[in-house]
Specification:
By secondary structure, the chain is of the alpha+beta class. The protein has helices spanning about 5-25, 35-45, 60-75, 80-95, 95-110, 180-210, 225-250, 255-285, 295-305, 310-320, and strands at about 115-120, 125, 135-140, 140-145, 150-155, 165, 175, 215, 215-220. It has ten helices and nine strands. It starts with 6 loop residues before the first helix and ends in an 8-residue tail after the last helix. The relative contact order is 0.11.
């Protein structure tokens, strides 16, 4: 399959990149009321990119969403946009018409932001859910709680660029649809974010390799560094291809989505970890300091790579889908 972005998709990608680079912040996430990414992206009408037009959205697809989320990943943006988009995808694919009419218009307009949670029951892990109007979780079923219950903030998390909290969904309203395909779509978005993380980590490494000098030469002139940067590029482009393929599959061949999603998540998670750790090595001692941003990319790569399903779980699913037992050597 050949995948080329059309003019509209290229325009979305360019605009998202411009917005993210203007607001790029590598510090702790802002509060929900002052999130510049959310306020500006929702003002563009992109909060409802993949929401059907009859519910006030743009009626586009997962591919367009993935382009925006990749740029957000490169800027280490909070999950405000991602959470709203993921919640809308899950609701649209699992809820009844009455539920969709009740929830989707607000999420599409940005006036009633949704958030996503992992798990269910009394131990759902909500991601950047502060200020959200409703919370959506998908595990053994889809649970929607409105308004968002009291959130018990975690004091510490590996990814310090986001806020994580536990939420009790015991009184949530359930959607009757099968969450499997919806969760796969959300994982495609998480994979797109990981590609953005890897892309920006690679850019930081290349910039440093061009500027830092040893023995009168930029360190990028030495094979040990240049080969490491070349390996980063191979990993990033391979992951991007896998994610774009999965996003296209979600929009055009949903019956093949399970396999494509697992390939995308495995490839993107491995690439993000490989590139962020390699970038840290290129930066040398500077990369190990708290002040340098590379550790934040590494933290995001490590935690986002484990959201919903881990790489090992996806590898087991690929083995099963391919007709092999996950326990076979």
């Amino acid at each position: 399959m050949r995948f080329d972005l059309d003019e509209d998709q290229l325009a979305i990608q360019e605009t998202a990149r411009d917005i993210c680079r203007r607001h790029e912040s590598l510090a702790s996430p802002p509060s929900a009321d002052s999130d510049p990414f959310w306020s500006e992206l929702s003002a563009t009408g992109w909060a409802g990119i993949a929401v059907p037009e009859r519910f006030g959205g743009q009626g586009l697809g997962v591919a367009e969403l993935a382009l925006v989320v990749e740029e957000l990943g490169a800027s280490l943006a909070p999950a405000t946009f991602l959470g709203n988009a993921a919640a809308a995808l899950v609701v649209d694919r699992t809820a009844s018409d009455e539920q969709r009419s009740r929830w989707l218009p607000g999420m599409a307009s940005g006036q009633r932001r949704g958030a996503i949670a992992v798990g269910g029951g009394s131990s759902a892990l909500a991601i950047d859910a502060g200020g959200a109007a409703l919370l959506v979780a998908a595990s053994d079923g889809v649970h929607v709680v409105e308004p968002v219950p009291h959130l018990q903030e975690h004091q510490a998390a590996l990814d310090i660029t986001r806020r994580f909290a536990t939420a009790d969904l015991s009184d949530a309203e359930r959607c009757s649809g099968d969450p499997a395909a919806a969760v796969d779509c959300v994982e495609v978005l998480v994979s797109a974010e990981l590609v953005g993380v890897a892309q920006r980590a690679m850019e930081l490494a290349v910039e440093h390799a061009q500027q830092r000098e040893q023995f009168g030469r930029p360190i990028g002139a030495f094979q040990a560094v240049s080969h490491r940067c070349a390996d980063m590029l191979v990993a990033v482009e391979g992951a991007r291809s896998a994610v774009l393929s999965a996003a296209w599959t979600a929009d055009h061949e949903p019956e093949r989505l399970a396999f494509a999603t697992s390939v995308a998540k495995v490839t993107a998670a491995d690439a993000a970890w490989q590139v962020t750790t390699s970038s840290l090595q290129v930066h040398g001692g500077m990369g190990f300091t708290w002040e340098h941003p590379i550790h934040r990319f590494l933290r995001r790569a490590a935690m986002s790579g484990r959201l919903f399903r881990t790489v090992d779980q996806h590898l087991d699913r690929l083995a099963t889908l391919g007709g092999l037992s996950p326990t076979e050597g």
